[in-house]
Write a structure and sequence with these properties.
two-stranded antiparallel sheet, 71% helix, mainly alpha
Length: 168
């Protein structure tokens, strides 16, 4: 296992440092890669030739079926996909997930900011409602006083009429 990891690292570093030897570069849609990965069936298995050695992930056949052709040529085969390509695919997926995470973090921050704005507006409305209720109470008191004043005016008129009648 350690030898395989060392070989994978060596292959990847050789691949990364051999930029001048690369050609027919094709951009990869990271979201497409994620959608393809989501449709795969990861599992564990042993190869007959390896005895009890277990492997984890997707098989070379499933890798090749989903990622084995980039419109320029084949990447590996149904029975053998270079580890550098598997590592590269993992890099693309990690890159896509990091970008998705940044996007989601930004959306969460924006949502938090929007929620804070709404909470502030709600508090302002509550304060306004409280002020309105106080003013309404004063208006109600004025209405009550106006009603009392009208009743007093009517009673005063009645008393004045009574006094005039008694004077006669």
């Amino acid at each position: 296992m350690r030898i395989q990891l060392l070989l994978s690292a060596l292959i990847l570093s050789t691949t990364l440092f051999a930029q001048q030897e690369k050609h027919d570069y094709q951009a990869v849609d990271p979201q497409f890669v994620l959608s393809k990965i989501a449709k795969t069936r990861p599992g564990t298995w042993s190869l007959t030739k390896d005895g009890d050695v277990r492997h984890f992930g997707i098989t070379d056949k499933e890798f090749f079926t989903n990622f084995g052709n980039d419109r320029v040529g084949n990447i590996g085969s149904e029975t053998n996909v270079p580890n550098a390509d598997k590592i590269g695919l993992n890099y693309v997926a990690i890159h896509a997930l990091i970008n998705r995470n940044f996007t989601l973090q930004k959306r969460v921050e924006d949502a938090d900011q929007y929620i804070q704005t709404l909470e502030n507006e709600i508090q302002e409305l509550r304060n306004s409602q409280s002020t309105f209720m106080e003013m309404l109470e004063k208006v109600n008191q004025v209405d009550e006083l106006t009603q009392i004043a009208k009743e007093l005016e009517i009673r005063t008129t009645q008393l004045e009429e009574e006094v005039e009648r008694l004077k006669e």
